[in-house]
Design goal:
With 214 residues, this protein is an alpha+beta fold. It has nine helices and five strands, in the order H-H-H-H-H-H-H-H-E-E-E-E-E-H. The chain has a five-stranded antiparallel β-sheet with strand order 1-2-3-4-5. The radius of gyration is 17 Å and the shape is globular.
Length: 214
């Protein structure tokens, strides 16, 4: 599972960066993803700190330029499934925060693995009035077969936001849903929040160790 999720973020992070929110609101979702993909690829390839695996630089990039384009609350609610409705607003917020941190801490290092990839987009099948769409693409590598990479986006007041990602036929939300359901069945929503928080602490400590050694 870890390898699969790492693939999600290695390729998904090639598509989310460096655009003003106002521009995002005016662009069609497929055009938005095309522009962001090229920008993040160019930056990741040319930033020596990112190529060198500098975690601090990667976190800054993720926090300031990538996360604004992801709807973490919807992503978390979908991963939690029916259990989301039984959670209190405070639990929902805590779970969203921990899930967000988990994704950032675990896979931000994937950005430094971007080398010579490029992204090709397929024609989008959507009507002008649609508020939820799927943008389909594939990542072309110098070695190996192309990697399928699709996004589900919803139109928000501030523009389009991603709420699910598909790599090689597997959706990110579904990948986590089984783990979330099993943990909630064993120890409830609070148990899942605690488990994610503990994992985030370990990941943060490991990341700090890597940064200090550079």
């Amino acid at each position: 599972m870890k390898t699969l999720i790492k693939r999600f973020f290695l390729f998904a992070f090639t598509s989310l960066a460096f655009a003003a929110p106002g521009m995002a609101a005016e662009e069609a979702p497929d055009q938005l993803m095309k522009r962001l993909s090229q920008e993040i690829l160019d930056i990741a390839k040319n930033d020596k700190d990112i190529q060198g695996g500098n975690q601090k630089r990667v976190y800054e990039l993720v926090e300031s330029k990538i996360l604004p384009y992801i709807d973490f609350q919807r992503m978390t609610s979908l991963a939690a499934g029916k259990n989301w409705r039984s959670a209190t607003p405070e639990q929902q917020q805590q779970l969203t925060n921990e899930f967000r941190s988990l994704l950032v801490f675990t896979y931000s290092g994937a950005i430094s693995q971007i080398k010579d990839q490029r992204v090709e987009f397929k024609p989008m099948r959507a009507a002008p009035e649609d508020t939820e769409v799927e943008v389909r693409s594939q990542v072309i590598q110098s070695r190996g077969e192309p990697i399928q990479l699709n996004y589900r986006l919803q139109k928000m007041p501030g523009g389009w936001k991603i709420y699910d990602i598909n790599v090689l036929g597997a959706w990110l939300v579904e990948t986590y849903k089984g783990t979330f359901t099993a943990e909630i069945s064993k120890s409830g929503i609070d148990g899942l929040i605690k488990a994610l928080a503990e994992k985030n602490k370990r990941l943060a400590a490991a990341s700090n160790g890597k940064t200090a050694s550079k």
